[in-house]
Amino acid sequence: MSYYKSEAEQMNGKEALGELDLATLAQHQQAIAKVAEQDKSKKVQMAARVMMHKLEPAAGHMDAVFAKLEDSDENVRYYAAKALGELDLATLAPYEQ
Fold first, then answer.
1. Is the pLDDT score of 16 beyond 60?
2. Measured between alpha carbons, how far is 62 from 58 in angstroms, rounded to an integer?
3. Which of 16, 27, 39, 40 is the most buried (most CB within 10 A)?
4. Angle subtended by helix axes 42-55 and 7-18, to nearest 10
């Protein structure tokens, strides 16, 4: 199930959530976690996982996004790369190989 009616709505939701501070994100952690697991849009799932990483850096959320770089669907790989490309170097540094 997707929580958005259109791709434009997805992008607006992602941008709005991305601008929230950690305390506000924490208030909605259960909803964000549900989207990360259950939304039908892989793009939305990845954006939610990036937000969850901000709340729980050691919980493996970024591992799930990195795993999508090897997905058989090129769109999923694209959106994983796009999500990772929006992160700062400090967030990505632990994953450097």
1. no
2. 9
3. 39
4. 10
Residue with tokens 């697991």: 37
Q: Scanning the structure block, which residue is given the tokens 């939610």? A: 48
In order, the DSSP letters of 28-96 are THHHHHHHHHH-S-HHHHHHHHHHHHHH-TTSSHHHHHHHGGG-SSHHHHHHHHHHHHTS-HHHHGGG-
In Å, the largest CA–CA distance within the chain is: 38
Question: Is residue 2 over pLDDT 70?
Answer: no
What does R_g of the chain's alpha carbons equal in angstroms?
13
| Token reading at 75 | 């769109």
**Could you report how far apart the first and last alpha carbons of the chain are, in Å?**
35
Question: Is the distance from CB of 68 to CB of 78 less than 8 angstroms?
Answer: no
